[in-house]
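task queued by scheduler; priority normal; single chain, no ligands, no partner chains; default sampling; output format set to structure tokens
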Amino acid sequence: TGSYEDRLAFATELKDRGNMKLKKIAGEDREQLEEVLRDYEKAAGILRYVECTRKDWKNDDGSYKGIEDEFLRLDTSALAGEKEIEAKALLASCYLNISLVETKLASYDLAVQACNAVLE
């Protein structure tokens, strides 16, 4: 939530934080790489995310019901507007950084998926 500018600023902050952490990692420390990956994924998730539109998605006890595809909506509203080019460039940068980290983690299929997301 928050204004468009706030979302864009926070996504940029997360990506930059991931970049700083990545530069400081010595070797292939899996735990640190996964932490950096979370920063990039959160930044991308601020700009492009899936939302469940089902009103009764929780059971009475607070547990979750299954989510069917028909109730899922991709929200890309942060990629439009007055700063559309900046937002799309930021999202592409996040996915490329995700690909880099996934490659360092030897998760090659995920690295390719992240690159493909940039090309879509």
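post-processing summary
- The mean pLDDT is 86.
- The longest strand covers residues 49-52.
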